[in-house]
Amino acid sequence: MNAAATPSNAEATPQLPIAPQLADFALGLRLDRVPAAVRERAKHLLLDAIGLAYASHDYDFAKVSLRAMLSLGSGTATVIGHGRLLQPRDAMLMNGVLVHGLDFDDTHSRGVIHATASIFPCAFGGAERVAASGAQMLAAYIAGMEVATRVGAVAQGGFHQIGFHPTGVAGVFGCAVAAARLDGLSAQQTAMAQGIALSMASGSLEFLQDGAWTKRIHPGWAAGAGMTAAALAKQGFIGPQAPYEGRFGLYASYLGEMRAQADLSLATAGLGQQWQIEEVALKPIPACHFTHAAADAAVALHRQLGGNGGGGIARVRVKMPQQVVKTVCEPVANKRRPANSYEAQFSIPYIVACGLLKGRFTLDELEPAALGAPDVLALAGKVDYEVDPESTFPRHYTGEVILEMADGRQLAHREAINRGSADRPLTNHDISEKYFINARRALPESRAAQIRETVLSLERLDAGVLHALLAEPI
Which residue intervals define the domain MmgE/PrpD N-terminal in the entry (predicted)? Predict the structure, then answer.
């Protein structure tokens, strides 16, 4: 036989495109085969998100968003804590705003994606639409999380460098498979839903320039778009077959010159064996995750100084990963004097100054009076950044704060592993405490406790029990 007629092993068994592999995984996932620790962590991630939705209730961004969605008409889908019903896609957008609005929600470190903020509204709304069980909702959430985080991880931090927000860009694919699973799509339809979702992937980082509110809509937009993609695929709508690896696929189109750094193998590596939910980092402070290590380093120095505030500090240098500079360090003038709370949450100078002066960074530091505090702004004006050559980003969001004192001393503290990351995780008990702190901003303790018990028992209940609880107005 001619050698040319005998294909190599690779040619004889070609690798499937990524979308069908993710579809097979998402539809084949069985909740009883998901490790108990992963299921328990997933429920605590849901609990964290719900607590944040309640904490967001009275903020202007929530009120404005709800008015906008109500202007489009009412429906049958629950908006958490508001006692209002919207069309399913509008409710998903609104619930995404509530979960993500305070930028206090979880982050998958390698994917640099707030996955729960999109997957939870999609799974929650999708389960309500088809009257799913709690187990079905939880399984859809886990499947969507595993897909979205991997799709984000492939870019290896590149989306941010180009100006895209991975939560919207990658989240829509996880939402598409979560919606497909709940709506009973076939594997072929679920692969097609991902192809359709490619034209819906979106999320610009331009909000960083002036503290605009647009980042808050990215997760919920991904949720509604994912459900739409699944609905179209179910009815036979045709989408691209290679949304990830195609010539104009996700990474070719959204990474530009950084496409070469994308590692497509990360999209499917360890599916069903290595659980990305275990890699999700929980936020201990309400700010961009990139700032957390530097914030904790500043608090440590506050204690080292005996709580003496900024007295005697001549200059502050903060070492940060190169990949986060555009997000939390530049433009320097804006970061030193944030115009609003959202800009403050992405400001290394402001957050570090708060830590040095107050020994904390909480939601209170985002109030208008706090943003204008003269002593904080004066110290923020002394904060400069440097690129950290020793950073292990994106595995860890490192940070080091160095103080140059007026008397010539130099003090430094480094956080090599950010608190709340997979290598330094918050416990489930920590997450429950965070949930109560946030939920109690809007709810009495008894109702917050009832919601907690319902979420942690979700796989044994009808999802409608949770929908009914969260539909009640505050």
Answer: 21-257
Q: Within a 13 Å sphere around the CA of 234, how many CA atoms are in the beta-carbon half? A: 15
Q: Are strands 383-387 and 313-320 parallel, antiparallel or unpaired?
A: parallel
Q: d(Cα 70, Cα 48) in Å, to the nearest integer?
A: 26
* Whether the Cβ atoms of residue 415 and residue 296 lie closer than 8 Å to each other: yes
Q: Which two tokens stand for residue 95?
A: 């619930």
Residue 308 sits in which domain range?
A: 289-415
Q: Looking at residue 192, which CATH number applies to its domain? A: 1.10.4100.10
**How many domains in the chain?**
2
Q: How high is the mean pLDDT in each 10-residue block of the chain (474 residues)? A: 35 69 98 97 98 96 98 97 96 98 95 97 98 98 98 96 96 98 98 98 94 96 98 98 97 94 96 96 94 97 84 94 96 94 95 96 93 96 97 94 96 96 95 97 97 98 97 95
Residue 251 belongs to what H/E stretch? helix 250-255
Please report, to the nearest 10 degrees, the dihedral formed by the alpha carbons of residues 242, 243, 245, 249 taken in order: 130
Domain shared by 340 and 201, yes or no:
no
How far is the C-alpha of 140 from the C-alpha of 146, rounded, in Å? 10
Determine, yes or no, domain membership for 244.
Answer: yes
- Residue 2, Cβ density class (10 Å: 0-12 exposed, 13-18 middle, ≥19 buried): exposed
Contacts of 126 (CB under 8 A, 6+ apart): 88, 132, 137, 140, 178, 179, 182, 183, 227
User: Across the strands, what pairs with 462?
Assistant: 133
pTM score: 0.91
Q: Among residues 415, 433, 462, which one ends one of the domains?
A: 415
* 80/213 same-domain check: yes
Do 234 and 351 reside in the same domain of the chain? no
Q: Where are the beta strands (DSSP E) in 252-394?
A: 280-281, 313-320, 383-387
Strands 74-78 and 85-86: antiparallel
Task: For residue 316, give the CATH number of its domain.
Answer: 3.30.1330.120
